[in-house]
Amino acid sequence: MPRVAIIDCEIGNLFSVKNVCEFVGLEANITQDHEDLLLADGVILPGVGAFGDAIGNLERLDFLSPIKDYIASGRPFMGICLGMQLLFTESEEFGQHKGLDVIPGQIVRFPSQRTGSRIVKVPQVCWNRIHPSEDGGQPWDGCPLEDVDPGEYMYFVHSYYCVPDDPSVTLCRTTYGDTTYCSGLVRSNVFATQFHPEKSGSQGVKIYKEWAARLADGRRES
Amino acid sequence: MNHRIIPRLDIKGPNLVKGIHLEGLRVLGRPEFFAQYYFEHGADELMYQDVVASLFGRNSLQEIISRTARASFIPLAVGGGLRSIADISDVLRAGADKVSLNTAAVRRPELVREAALSFGSSTIMVSIEASKEDGLYRAYVDNGREPTGVEVLEWAQQAEDLGAGEILLTSVDREGTGTGFDLELISMVAQSVSVPVIAHGGAGSVQDCFEALEMGLADAISVASILHYDLIREREVWEHDDAEGNVVFLKSGRSFSKIQPAGLDEIKTFLSEKGVSCRHA
């Protein structure tokens, strides 16, 4: 059974990530020990909460270099929600914070918006559609979104969104209020989503299934 | 935005119950059964409320949360009797994604800040149970039983400042009556905070759901009776449950005259036809 390490940076619900990993046939281990990354067939960086706190916790637990080393090893890596944002260069959340800088780019806050008398609420807490990136993004074929229908709904909870310097990493786009942004990305072995596939019903489970299949393939090859 | 329709399940011990004005509880069946059914039929999220948490032990709730979280891959919010960071942590560890705080937050608002810092704002919902007196909405605690004198709008804004990620707004006056949401209350709060407001209390028909979202400007709605009675009508679930409490009502096959039962698909079809966006296949 492929082994996945779920990095615990002490914020948010990791139960649901572990639960869905087990549901799709992975052996899932929630860990604060960076040495667990060495033996893992796949690594998930989940997370909710504040960017600065999460980076601070990763630093304190000595995870920053091991995560970068793991990603450089070419084995499958998945970032979810804040875990996607942490991959970027820096965030403007509560002052400027440096991220892992694996994906060059910025994390910015949704602007204050209104539609008529209605405030477009921040955080966005709702199901929203993901669409393939038009000009020059990554195709869904051959990535964990392979079995997902374009325009499918996924569950989102966030106030900030990712702006990659290189838009070609974009896998899917989502529109909230008047803002259309990168809601998922892929760059070689790194796959990341702003939405929570583990909370997105059967469509989200499909994403984990596809990702798990990659882990199994990687295990056979090595 | 796509408005969420959130089935609300009031829990007493091992049972799903439903009351009027948050009191006079009737046993409806096993909560996990209802939760699973709603997950499979398009619920956007699930909400458990332990209605007697301050009076009884919590073990059965933990088990219900774990069983539900293992089988349904949508967000699960849990509230009722959570008083401390440790209580919140227990419920999250059992598998909840969010918690709602009412009594403890009103008594000690700093708990909201501490909880938001510990678990992230998106995990912390402040639940406000509102009732109108002398023209002003005031917050109640202990399931709508105890007045606090706290003014609802001020409290909602303070909750947001303290780091609440969402406001769950219940009309105690309308809860369980099926006479419609309190649109004045909902729009007042929804227009005054920048975090999402979930309206709860009073839904008696699909039209009421539409009005809460369209006129009330709610971001999401939480619905109990019309869904539960629809499910009961469909499946006659009570036959399979050992229930505690008033089941005569259930066996009679009657529901409340004001409640027009409707399933999630029916609600979402109605909303979509009226141009209110929601996740609907």
- Going across the biggest sheet of chain A, name each strand in turn: 2-1-3-4-16-15-14-11
Q: Would you count the extended β strands of chain A for me?
A: 16
Largest sheet, strands/sense/barrel of chain B: 8 strands, parallel, barrel
What is the N-to-C order of secondary-structure elements of chain A (H for helix, E for strand)? EHEHEHHEHEEEEEEEEEEEEH
Instruction: Give the topology string of chain B: H per helix, E per strand.
Output: EEEHEHEHEHHEEEHEHEHEHHH
What CATH calls the topology of chain B is TIM Barrel
Please give the order of strands in the largest beta sheet of chain B. 1-4-5-6-7-10-11-12
Radius of gyration of chain A: 16 Å
Low-confidence stretches of chain A: none
What proportion of the residues of chain A is helical, as a percent range? 25-40%
Average of the residue pLDDT scores of chain A: 93
State which percent range the strand residues of chain B make up: 25-35%
Q: Count of helical segments of chain B?
A: 11
Q: What is the rounded distance between the termini of chain B?
A: 16 Å
For the CA atoms, what is the radius of gyration of chain B?
A: 17 Å
Structural class of chain B: alpha/beta
Approximate shape of chain A: globular
Number of spatially distinct domains of chain B: 1
Which segments of chain B are poorly predicted (pLDDT under 50) over 5 or more consecutive residues?
none
CATH fold-level name of chain A: Rossmann fold
Q: Based on DSSP secondary structure assignment, what is the total number of beta strands of chain B?
A: 12
